[in-house]
Specification:
Layout: H1 4-7, E1 15-18, H2 21-28, E2 37-42, E3 51-58, H3 66-80, E4 85-91, E5 101-105, E6 110-115, E7 117-120, H4 135-139, H5 151-165, H6 169-183, H7 187-196, H8 198-240, H9 245-252, H10 256-265, H11 272-275
Parallel strand pairs: 3-4, 4-7
Antiparallel strand pairs: 1-2, 2-3, 5-6
Helix pairs in contact: 5-6, 6-8, 7-8, 8-10
Length: 277
């Protein structure tokens, strides 16, 4: 979506590895401002070097610094021991005045040249991505350029893309929040959307209700398990007047069935060793 010039060469078997930002923060010092997505693309057959993608998102173009971006890329190149680095800047808002190139030198020589792939979302027409099979493009429709009378269509196309291109229900619910935030439909618009696109509205509403119900059920189960573990600890301490570290570790790593079994035996066991056999 953001760097088609480079991504065409990445085959399906390539491995995409997010870099650990904790390590980068230590390396780059206290003034380091986290990159949004440092990604390493590795080819499975080893026929090409890894390719490092450095993506940065800017909501306010006035905050963008090409010097800072060049600094990130040089430090990452040194850290990862590669010169194959692709800098990408995603502008949610753009004024057209962002610096496109950095040249260091004098009137006699140019010593360093640096540029990046620029993706200004508001300069893309949303209708050009109505039927895109790229999930990111569909999620970002509301951030692109569209007419006011296309607002409901933008929202509907984004939801359609989410429901068909993202198979994970939990991620669907997570990304639906993203779509809702940036589409910002008011109550009247949401009512019109539900009338005009009843299938998409019903599908996502059902998914949301099911996942929230599953979350509540899971939370209740976890609460019951924690309560049983706490009761077991209390009974052990009352009977054996001690709760050794190895017992605590055993309880923490136990399954719900194990804890239930120990609760049934704790009153009859002669020792902790017998209890946990």
């Amino acid at each position: 979506m953001f760097s088609p010039q480079e991504s065409e060469a990445i085959v399906c078997g390539a491995r995409i590895v997010p870099l650990r930002q904790e390590q980068l923060k230590e390396r780059l010092g206290s003034r380091f401002r986290e990159l949004d997505v440092p990604l390493l693309a590795e080819w499975p057959d080893g026929r090409r070097e890894a390719l490092l993608f450095v993506l940065e998102e800017e909501s306010d173009p006035r905050r963008f610094s090409i010097h800072r971006l060049a600094h990130y890329c040089l430090d990452l190149a040194e850290l990862c021991k590669t010169n194959r680095v692709v800098p990408v800047v995603i502008f949610l808002n753009a004024n057209g005045k962002e610096p496109r190139q950095l040249l260091l030198g004098s009137e006699h020589y140019e010593y360093l040249g640096f540029n990046y792939i620029r993706c200004a979302l508001q300069e893309l027409k949303a209708e050009d991505y109505w039927d895109s099979d790229n999930l990111i493009a569909r999620l970002c429709l509301s951030l692109m350029s569209w007419q006011q009378d296309q607002k409901l269509e933008v929202y509907a196309r984004a939801v359609q893309g989410l429901s068909t291109l993202e198979p994970d229900p939990e991620k669907q619910l997570k990304y639906l929040d993203f779509i809702d935030i940036y589409a910002a439909l008011d109550d009247n618009e949401m009512e019109l959307y539900q009338q005009k696109y009843p299938q998409e509205s019903t599908t996502m509403a059902t998914l949301s209700e099911r996942l929230r119900a599953e979350g509540m059920e899971k939370g209740m189960q976890q609460g019951m398990q924690q309560g049983e573990a706490a009761a077991l600890r209390k009974l052990i301490a009352l009977k054996f007047e001690a709760l050794p570290n190895w017992v605590e570790e055993t309880i923490q790593n136990a399954s719900p069935a194990d804890i239930e079994g120990w609760l049934e035996r704790v009153l009859t066991a002669d020792s902790l060793e017998k209890l946990f056999e």
